[in-house]
Amino acid sequence: MHIPDGYLSPSTCAVLWGTAAPFWYIAGKRVRATLHTLMVPLLSIFAAFSFVVMMFNLPLPGGTTGHAVGVGIATVVLGPWAAMSAISVALVIQALFFGDGGITAIGANCFNMAVAGSLVAWAVYRLACRGAPIGSTRRVLGAGFAGYTAINVSALCAAIEFGIQPMLFRDSLGAPLYAPYPLHVAIPAMLIGHLTFAGLAEFVIAAGIVAWLQRADPQLLCATAPDAPDAAEPTRPDRERPLWPSIRRFWIAIAILTILTPLGILAVGNAWGEWSPQDFSNSTTRREIQAASRNTEAPAHAPRGLERLSKLWTAPLSRYSPAFIRSASFGYLASAMVGVGIIIICGLALNWALGRFRPAEFRRRPPRRTGFVEKTLHTLVRAAQRALFADEMARADGFLQRRDARVNLAGLGALIVAAVGVRRLDALLALLALGMLLALVSRVSIGFLATRVWLAVLGFTGALAAPAVFLTPGTQLAHMPVLHWAVTEQGLRAAAFLILRAATAATFACLLVLCTLWTHLLRALRFFRTPLVAVALIGMTWRYIFLFLRAAEDMFQARQARLVGALEGAARRRLAAASAGVLLNRSIQLSNEVHLAMQARGFRGEIRTLGDDRLRGGEFLYGAGFLAAAAAAVWLGR
Amino acid sequence: MSDFAFEAREVGYSYDDVRALGAISLRIRRGERIALLGANGSGKSTLLRLLAGLCFPQRGSISFFGEPLTDERLRDDAFFFSFRRRVGLVFQNPDVQLFNPAVYDELAFGPLQLGWPKAQIRRCVEEMLEQMGIAHLRDRAPHRLSGGEKKRVALASVLILQPEVLLLDEPAAGLDPGSQGQIVNLLASWKNSGRTVITATHDMDTLEEIADRCCVFEDGRIAAEASPLDVLHDLPLLERTNLLRPHAHRHAAGMPHPHPHVHRHEPE
Fold first, then answer.
1. Would the pLDDT of B167 be above 90?
2. Which of B45, B109, B124, B144 to mutate against chain A (most A CBs within 10 Å)?
3. What is the ipTM of this complex?
4. What's the alpha-carbon Rg for chain B, to the nearest Å?
């Protein structure tokens, strides 16, 4: 339903910009007036939600795709004005950054989906649920129906805008200048999809979330339902209850949805009315266009006005597929993350900007909870202990610890390269087994590797690899029960490969760091002709981190000792902000002093160690062994 | 060669807008043991850093055995290494001084940087570990030692270079009396050893043992220069420079006075 540039004449666009503008103005004023409530955070949540929901393309009858908008639920929770703002924000970001919907058509798209959508949803919801209790089924159905109606009205508006183009704007030969299809084609083409699947999706989203909120957080439903008999006095959440718990659940949901976005490109085909100019000259896409438009033949080439206007703006992440990411699904996921990130930043900026003018009595009181200062402290202590632990492990008597740092660096480095390079699963497994063997003879416990390395790898890579299981085409092994996604053999292999590869490389890297003394490692880097500046920088950074950790630990402990009882959150944050500054200052100072102390004992940037500079013959053998193992893995696993 | 280890002429130094040293002029003879006295923040540590060539005077000049001590001069490798070999500085905060993973490496750091032969370094480190009574700490991580142990390791890490000139910033501050005693004994043993020792301190009790001459600092300038005994008897000076806590105590009749210190008996 995102009308691209070129499908509407400039004059149509201007009219729709003009129509949307007063609504934006009123919405801005209304939102501003209710800022003391949860509004701003909720606003960014629903903007993000709408953004992500619109990326889930559903296959529609006629070979096109469509999506829900999220306007129903946004209106039911936020009211029409704030919902209008939230969805407009999502649409503007989509147009500017992702080329979904045109720049000239922002007015039109916002009018259709944000303005008309939320006003209709509001009217339907209020009418359908007049006097219904907050917890009633009527509210659930009313919200769903509001969403369903709203998205269809939006689609109808878009269809009318498309349909009047060929009536009004034609060139001298009578060929349409902009959108080519008249009303009797555009309206059925748009509405069939939205009356069925997309509308249904919108219904389910709105009804489902309302049903969930009725149990989880009924207060959020009260603001828009003053006529409900059991509505609590619309409280100012800012003053009377914690903000974070209810909001956190929303953000978690959005994070999960974001991770799932690659599913949105499973639906093949284009949305009706969102074809690119080239699609008109390609025979395959022409057939698709024709099938979707009641078998009306598509124009032989793209309408001239359309072609001209469509070049107006090239979005940086056009069509949610960043040029630098090869995999379509990963690009889609990355785009979703970027979009949500932009919305969060906008929300924070807005909150900050408006918060400065907010009267003090409205500033929300933070909830009582374990402060992040304490949490930070624990993290710091753990990190410091781990650093110490690593040093002790490097002093233990084990196989890798006895090797020369240069042998470790070259050998394990080669093995890491091999782990990245091999193409066969059995070679990768052999490398992982070698890593475990090395860990065993170097007294690094497998349990440590499992919890510190493999679990982390699984967490990070697993999330990336999971969609590959479904998205890779190939021999189907099984089906997900409800969703009918096919699990393919190739997909499973790809996912297993990614995870194993990462785990193997991480194991070798971890062994290198754990089993080599830091100073020797730096020295070895120098031996391999790493520039002095780089090595000095790494060394300084390490020391700096270490000092920072120690200074932080001391400071927080000193502060803890002086604190009696719990602090208010605001005071806690102020304290933390202030101490972060002091801490940084202090550790920079300490770091400078240490540098002076090193200088005073003759340090000139070059790190020297007591270890013998010459490689003993045995060490050569071990180094050659490592390199041979790596080469063999690459050769056999090619 | 000049007979003065250091000659400072009208030296001034400020940190941003805080003046640390006004215009200090000071001559330190070769082999002299001198104490820089003064309250916290009176400029002692700054002077030590200037003398160690870690920062450079913004006004005035410093020379080391007749040679000017400047940034440019220290960029010359030959001078840098000979200067670092001859002058050792022990920082007040041992955490600053100890940055190596183990005590053994800490001691070896200086000689390694100055490019001594490895065999000699190993021998010297062993000797120094024995001499300072820290052999049992050899493989411990310096940042996990106790305060007294840290100080001894810091001192050892500088002494191993056998510097002719030793700059000490509050070497015994914050230690228990036993550890303090060990350090003071070490300092006292250098009397007439030919080694130039410059100690910043505000510990009056040990003054006579560690110094032949005292400079009293007050707000970034030298308020007095005298022998330890004279300084200890100049009660108005000591009180003015925050070096003395006026207090009264009694000694039981006939009790000998075991600790050398000044005190004042207020009229009862």
1. yes
2. B109
3. 0.81
4. 19
